[in-house]
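Discussion board: Methods & Data

I've been asked by a reviewer to show the raw model output for two of the constructs in my manuscript, not just the figures. I'm not sure how much to include, so I'm pasting the format here to get opinions. Each protein appears as its amino acid sequence followed by a line of discrete structure tokens. Is this the kind of thing reviewers expect to see in a supplement, or should I convert it first? Here is construct A:
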Amino acid sequence: MTRAEYLINHYGMEMLTDEGTWIRQIYRAPDMGVTATFGIYTADPPSLSRFHCLSVNELWSWYEGDPIELFLLPPLSDSSAAHRIVLGPDTSSGETYQFIVPAGTWMGSRLVSGGSYALYGCTCVPGFTDDCYTHGDRDTLTATYPEMADIINQLT
């Protein structure tokens, strides 16, 4: 059994088909003030997080395995440019262990090229509900962020 298979079984993760990743909610505050999940990306079978937008802030935390790429498309009202963040252990090369994806930001993610697995966590404040999730549409995102068309096509 691989380490990824062990983690999927140990945490009872399930494939979230709409988003494309293995996930398990591990905590939900009674007042919905916070939710926490474990997730894992695997190369075999391939998994990723398709572009989506949340109406709440989401803290991403890298735990083990290979680095993860987060691709961020800020709201048009934000002057920030689309960009890539790498979650992983090599902070001397710009990787980071945690990153907050602001509410209203389109986000997609995956293992770095050549990676085999990555265990990560997501914490939402206020807590995640189905109502705070919007699935990305390839044509709309490509028209809005043409400079990111290649990655949008890969993660939608």
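Construct B, same format:
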Amino acid sequence: MPSVAWLHVAPVKGLALSARDEVELEPFGVAENRRFHLVDENGRLMNGKTLGALVGVRASWDAAADVLRLELPDGSIVEGEIELGAAVDTDFYGRPVSGRLVAGPWAEALSSLAGRGLRLVRPDDVGAGVDRGRGAMTLLSRSSLGELARHAGEGELDPRRFRMLIGIDGCRAHEEDEWLGRDVRVGDAVVRPLGQVGRCAVTTQDPDTGVPTVDTLRALRSYRPEGTERLPFGVFGSVVAPGRVRVGDAVELV
């Protein structure tokens, strides 16, 4: 039976992914996932495609205390309680996301690392910070990773390249595509995959350095037909029934 292989979240969109042994999957997704994002001085959304080096920054957010901690590549720590400032709207690929600027030391530290002015934003609505409003959860199988690695001429590919919430072991390559529109039990939760995730240049980058190292897009183009998205790899969807999901939990069609 398929099972959960990994759980990855990013408290700050564009920074390093953090592995979790378990998450609480809510109707909006996972509360700490993409809870903050970055914009430039003109209010434009910034991500790993333009600021690859920021994947070297590890973030953690204590929701109860509302404390954000960043560990920079040089080992220095920037930490403090969240203080919200002016209201801002961010364009997420044509979808407006309302939020508030975050006052404090984080923007200065990230701006210094990136070599350009950045501001930290917290969306008003939990779960609003996912790309293009693509649903509360994402799924990718390890077999799909293996198939893409074969076409890319690589021994293996780090799943963090693809920044997916839930990884699946024990199914066929791209079997997750067959789950579109069907309910899938994942641990204590039930999800419904709705569409494929189209891929961009972020997946070519090493997940520790942000430096392009593998032409994943060329490999996808060589064998993946267009589906609900161009260069599809993995699926996104909604949460039908909330619940706890743990690494090792069973995954099955309902």
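Answer (T.O., handling editor elsewhere):
This is acceptable in a supplement if you add a one-line summary per construct. For B, something like: The chain has two domains: 3-8+134-253, 37-132.
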